[in-house]
Amino acid sequence: MLRMLAGLPVLSQVWLYALLVGAYSGLAVWKEHSPLKDQWDQPAQIHEVFGLVLGLFLVFWTNRAYERWWEARTLWGQLVNTSRNHAVKIKNLLKLPASDLRLCESIIIGFPYSLKEHLRDGCVLKQVPGFASSADNPDHVPTYLVSLLYDRFRKWYQLELITGDELRILDLEASQLLEICGACERIRNTLIANSYRRFIRQLVILHLIALPWGLAQEFGDATVVIVTIAAYFMIGVTVIAHAIEEPFGHDEDDLDLNLLCNKIEGGVREIFARQMPLNS
Fold it and tell me: In 3D, which of 225, 230, 194 has the Cα closest to residue 209?
């Protein structure tokens, strides 16, 4: 059953779990209409205090998860700008052979695609647009592509196609690609501690198990509705925090990396296609 639920959208999963908790709370309502009415009563104030403490833990987890998601989005926005800047400088500031321009275009376009796959399931160089026929098979494809850029820079400098100042300008943009890659890897590899996440989930479960028994005496049949709504919010916060904590995946709440890669590719191709190279 859990595997079936995992395939549903996040909010649909939350509603199903909340309805299950609401159905469970019907047991507490039934008790109030049975001979066991006066047994196992709990003061509602206990659940108010417990809910407040639990809310603080949930807020902390959600904030940390969203900070990770937003930092990842900021980094990819920076990658969009860096790719465009790099393309403009190579295309318009330098007088380079057409073959070198085409190679740089392929590298700048291929880098975001390689980073996307690297952050997900791992990247093979032949999967990168423009490198399908490459015989190389590097372990870290994004770094390999940047190393190709630096190899070009070195040759251009040796052939006096670029000056020292121009080399420093190109190095600034290329080094930013590696910095973005490293920051994304840090986000992917440094999750919130598993013990903390398990602890929060256990607190949510225990609270929802005990909550109906503290409300049924005061709220009667309305307990089912109250508990279902409370479960929806608590489970929803937990599920959403877990979903956005890893922003590079394929889920609906993850970053749309395919869209960003296509955006970078379109912008870079437009820059390189604006005019014919000056030295072909």
Answer: 230
